[in-house]
């Protein structure tokens, strides 16, 4: 270590230049031809691996039928009545202009609903509103009567009390470059919305649908980054500057932070990586974690200078004391974040990999360019001849003096909070991934309140034979199943071809309501369907409901915005009901809602496996590094309990765990180990090198590393606290619980770990202490060398 530190200080300018050149080369990977080269993928499907069953089921349905990605124009007249000439005209015009939306394949609204009726012996099919100019009281009344009576329209394209309507645009993306295609569609529909808002000031226009959710991921993340990263830099400047009271140290720390973040982004670019909602938060996390290494080096460095060492000797001693614990904390933090590769959601794996790269870069820079900068910069420290009793000394004396009750009370508190872990329920609502600051969330909440939610379930019924959808028995099965779905408490709408066939049968019998039933002959059903298809305008065919050879049909059920638990229960209820029918038909279930519901539950199981492996690896690593199996096992307690207490607190006050929180144990495990490593390494050093008693070794640990642990914890809490203000709820929840867990970890390391160490000292240790005190009574009062 002496040779290493001498080399760094002797060649400080070379070291600084080499690191800056390396960062420059690395950061160039983030650019190509002068343009930013790390794309932001805005497709919700990036949350799923290629082999995800629910994703593949959904993609299979989309290949059979038309794609269901959509943009929903919500039309809400301020007078609360859709059925006025002005509002119907606006919907009619919007429907026509929506055909110009980029990549659209279909537009549905109440005005272009294919209204069928009998005229003598003929079947007539036309738009419900043919021309806006033709609207009079009679046609408006007809539009209202039909819209509110058609099950296909009610609570899907028109609200029950007629105060809101939807123009639904089905989008068929080429999927060649999703990073460009989704924003292109979003820009197109926003231009139309803004235009209509100007033309019709008495009508409110909002945008929802899967495309708008897709575009909200990058927009929310970019908006967060533009505020969070500068805010976090300010927090670091204030925290390090005020707590350590050093301008030069703050400047050097900022340099390490910036080089770590820039280096990580560049390497990620060289690796061909991309960003998503979760991984876009990596700079904030890296920025936060990079501070910890610097604080420990700075804390020892300034302590040495205050006690008479010259600057270069103080740097050398700080490197000697901190190299191993800083390396250990960096490795364990990286291991913790690498466990995110066990996640079933790739964006979290990307976040973990990016942070792991950043953490190791921060370590490398903190032991190279950081000491070189400290040696180069002018630093003045006021020396103190005697040790002054500070907060850490008082805390150490308090813990030692009250260890007999602190340990049992802390144990009871830990077990008490941990007992609330089972109170957490898996509950995710992907609409609520965004808070109320995001327009998509407000529009979707409005749509949920007035029309229908975004939770859908797509059911593909297979007759197992060509043209089997015309079989009266099969049609009755589908109709009965659709009716059963409608009877569910939270069902908003069920779109099924059987309703169309019932309507056609009624039309062909003089619009007699008694004939609103399915055709009882296969040939008749086939004729009705063929006649209907031939009468439909281009773009409004039945390919969204029927496959090519007419062997299967898709039923789309829309529900209120359900949580993941409710969706999983719904899935099981549907499958159970289908199996009870003992039919010869097939059923496939899929939807984005189902995909997100499943990934939440499977991700928790996957992350538990990853966290368990990380815990084993970290414990083995600490055992070897500390050269003690006993201390390796002891470290398990303060490493495990913070997450247990944190999730217990969450269960007590919140009680719902979503996709973002499923990775918190792995994230926090790597971070909270840092405090344990630094405290234990100083404790062991005091016992082995200085021959101190366990009590005085605790005092030494508090005195030498307590302040640094306090500062790093406050910075980490501030960093993850900033993350908790994100408008992207997945990141916000992760940031909040991580901040809480880090605070709990510090409390446990300060109030629980020292009494435990003093309790578990071996007989050999106790005999050695007695002999040492007999030989040197002053040894018991020593706190620092």
UniProtKB/TrEMBL annotation:
Annotated Pfam families: MMPL
Coiled-coil residues: none
Gene Ontology CC terms: plasma membrane
Region (Disordered): 766-785
KW Transmembrane helix (keyword) present: yes
Residues in the signal sequence: none
Main location: membrane
Regions that span the bilayer: 227-244, 251-271, 283-305, 326-343, 355-377, 405-422, 604-626, 633-653, 659-680, 708-728, 734-760
Keywords of the record: Cell membrane, Membrane, Transmembrane, Transmembrane helix
Membrane association type: Multi-pass membrane protein
Localization (cell): Cell membrane
InterPro entries: MMPL_dom, Mycobact_MmpL, SSD
Claim: Lipoprotein is one of the keywords in the record: no
Residue ranges of every copy of the SSD domain listed in the record: 251-376, 667-759
Similarity comment text for this entry: Belongs to the resistance-nodulation-cell division (RND) (TC 2.A.6) family. MmpL subfamily.
Name listed for the protein in its UniProt record: MMPL family transporter
